[in-house]
Design goal:
The protein has 16 helices and 20 strands. The protein is of the alpha+beta class. The protein folds into two domains: about 5-360, Alpha/alpha barrel (Glycosyltransferase); about 375-605, Beta-galactosidase, Chain A, domain 5 (Distorted Sandwich). The protein has a nine-stranded antiparallel sheet with strand order 6-10-11-12-13-20-17-16-15, with no helix packed on it. It has a five-stranded antiparallel sheet with strand order 3-4-5-7-8, with no helix packed on it. Strand 7 (about 410) and strand 8 (about 415-420) form a beta hairpin. Helix 13 (about 305-315) packs across helix 15 (about 340-350).
């Protein structure tokens, strides 16, 4: 649909929004977070980080991302904090604001090295040609600069205003209008679509003065965003990219949606789409405890949903329990990631009521997402502590996917005693065919078997194998026993393996978990190694193993076959290479030759805590 220029109401002055920010009940929480997340502005003499050429080229030379990205995001986080403080009444640092804006405008490219569209030849690069590509963070930069001008233009000199407008025009507006529909992410089924189209649309709405250009840009954006909602989520509303990218994609989608709703007098209301209701339910389905989610794929083991965006989405969709997943700002979780997003932090001030609620009962309910091939089963120990068994099947391909088909976690009172290790260190190799040499992405780092010496086979994305998937065959409940059954044999790509079936059972009254793996072969049985991963200390003794958390302990006992014994493999080097402070332990058990079945019982014991 081609939008007409007359659809849009004039942009209102920022006065009302500024008053709303200043009276926001979230004001104290937001400013405290920014002071902790952006300590560079606490110094008497503030130094603006530099993004040098040699840092930009580190990625091409070694695959390392942090050298350039750290100062890049720190600079934008400084801009966020400074703009918020100036909006809230600081009168002292206008010059620093102008220096920050000028420094960002001086960057040769806003596109990260890892996202560079590098043409054939060493001289035709993002650093030498006119901007013709927009990545996630170029789009976000444009949005941040546009928001800064909208709210603080009266604090800026005319030449700074002109420079910012020139750079946004050259780096964002012109490439988007000329090539937007040809960008690979424009109608993509992933977070890039929503972030780029949403952030670019926001920048146009703040800065574009020509109604015809504005209508054309938003027509392009809405074409992409419609595809995002239809294809970026599964039929059950879930995201195969995991909770972090569910959150990230919706940041700018919700922001632009509400601005469009306001500027069109309700004529364009993206959040009225009924599909948003199922999408809003997704975090409740995979939530384990406050700030913790079933973190399959490239998801972090702890995550923070953005308060303002989540509360607004909850309100607009009627999924009120979604807002009860908001946790206090945590600078340990994505410390600079959210702080670098000015438009999103401002929506925290505008839309979040500053309240933290108890973990919602809706997240304690069992969940089955058939399209995502995810199951979450809830129970409790005999002493009443919550126990969650969560498992997944699914495909061996996709955005940010891991080889984790059949993988499961056991969470007890908020501790993932059997865990998902989460994402590996983002680098050049991690998003190439070498991805699955990294234990965080390969099945070696997950609680799934190795069969005939083979790990699970990567599919066509990041690999050269065929697209395969494991299925959840059934899930249900008999008495106090909740169970699910998965067929995972296709993802091993072994012609002689005709069946690999995993059955998981949770006793909802005691928290006991029972696992049964069954294998069938067309010829002689293959060697089978079972494995279970944890971030907690693990001790083995023959057919038993213990995993000791802070409050509870898991006792793993091999019931079948006789002769199978655990060994504990500390993956220390692999964890340090991925910049993890903790060490992942892999508890492995090689089955005797000819074994076709493995049965494991997992019991939970509450630790005796010393009296104070």
């Amino acid at each position: 649909m081609q939008l007409h220029p007359k659809f849009f109401l004039p942009q209102p002055p920022p006065t009302a929004s500024i008053e709303q920010f200043r009276s926001s009940p979230a004001c104290q929480a937001v400013t405290a977070y920014l002071r902790e997340a952006v300590p560079a502005l606490n110094a008497a003499e503030v130094s603006i980080p530099q993004t040098f050429y040699s840092l930009y080229r580190q990625f091409a030379r070694s695959g390392e991302r942090a050298g350039y990205e750290n100062p890049y995001f720190e600079k934008r986080a400084m801009l966020t904090r400074l703009v918020v403080e100036l909006i809230l009444g600081d009168e002292t640092r206008n010059d620093l604001l102008q220096d920050l804006l000028w420094s960002i405008c001086e960057e040769t490219s806003w596109v990260l090295p890892a996202h560079e569209d590098r043409r054939q030849g060493e001289t035709n690069t993002a650093l030498t040609r006119e901007p013709d590509f927009i990545d996630l963070f170029a789009a976000e930069t444009g949005a941040s600069l546009a928001e800064t001008l909208y709210f603080l233009e009266d604090r800026l000199s005319p030449e700074v205003i002109q420079r910012v407008r020139q750079e946004v025009e050259r780096r964002i507006f012109q490439p988007y209008l000329a090539y937007g529909r040809t960008f690979w992410w424009h109608r993509g089924d992933l977070n890039w679509n929503a972030v780029c189209n949403g952030a670019v649309g926001l920048a146009f709405m703040r800065l574009e003065r020509d109604p015809r250009r504005l209508a054309e840009a938003l027509t392009i954006a809405l074409e992409g965003l419609d595809a995002y909602i239809e294809t970026g989520f599964e039929a059950d509303g879930g995201s195969l990219e995991g909770i972090g990218y569910w959150n990230y994609g919706l940041l700018y989608y919700v922001t632009l949606a509400e601005l469009l709703n306001e500027r069109t007098g309700g004529w364009i209301d993206l959040l009225a789409n009924p599909r948003l209701r199922e999408i809003a339910r997704y975090p409740l389905a995979i939530a384990l405890a406050p700030g913790k989610y079933f973190n399959f794929a490239d998801a972090a083991d702890e995550d923070m949903l953005q308060p303002g965006i989540v509360q607004r989405l909850a309100k607009r969709t009627g999924v009120d329990d979604l807002s009860r997943l908001i946790i206090p700002y945590d600078t340990k979780v994505w410390r600079g990631f959210f702080a670098s997003k000015l438009a999103i932090v401002l929506r925290d001030l505008a839309w979040w009521d500053g309240q933290i609620h108890p973990f919602p009962a809706a997240a304690r309910q069992d969940a089955y997402l058939p399209a995502c091939a995810l199951v979450k089963l809830n129970g409790q120990t005999s002493q009443g502590q919550p126990v969650i068994l969560a498992a997944k099947a699914g495909y061996n391909s996709g955005h940010h996917y891991h080889l984790d088909i059949g993988h499961f976690i056991v969470s007890v009172d908020g501790e993932n005693l059997l865990c998902d290790p989460g994402r590996g260190l983002y680098s050049q190799a991690y998003f190439r065919e070498g991805r699955f040499e990294n234990i965080f992405a390969s099945s070696f780092g997950h609680s799934v078997p190795r069969i005939g010496g083979h790990l699970q086979m990567p599919g066509p994305k990041f690999g050269q194998g065929s697209l395969e998937h494991g299925q959840i065959i059934s899930q249900g409940k008999v008495g106090a026993k909740k169970s699910l059954v998965m067929d995972i044999h296709p993802v091993y790509g072994l012609p002689q393996l005709s069946l690999a079936r995993r059955t998981l059972e949770l006793d909802e009254k005691t928290g006991e978990v029972r696992l049964e793996d069954s294998f069938e072969f067309t010829g002689a049985p293959l060697e089978i190694e079972e494995a279970f991963v944890t971030w907690y200390p693990g001790l083995v003794d023959g057919s038993t193993a213990r995993i000791t958390g802070q409050r509870n302990e898991l006792a793993l006992t091999i019931l079948e076959p006789d002769g199978a014994a655990f060994i504990a493999d500390l993956l220390t080097e692999e964890c340090r290479a991925n910049e993890r402070e903790k060490t992942l332990t892999r508890l492995a058990a090689c089955l005797p030759v000819g074994a076709r079945q493995f049965v494991l019982r997992i019991n939970i014991h509450t630790l005796s805590l010393p009296k104070l």
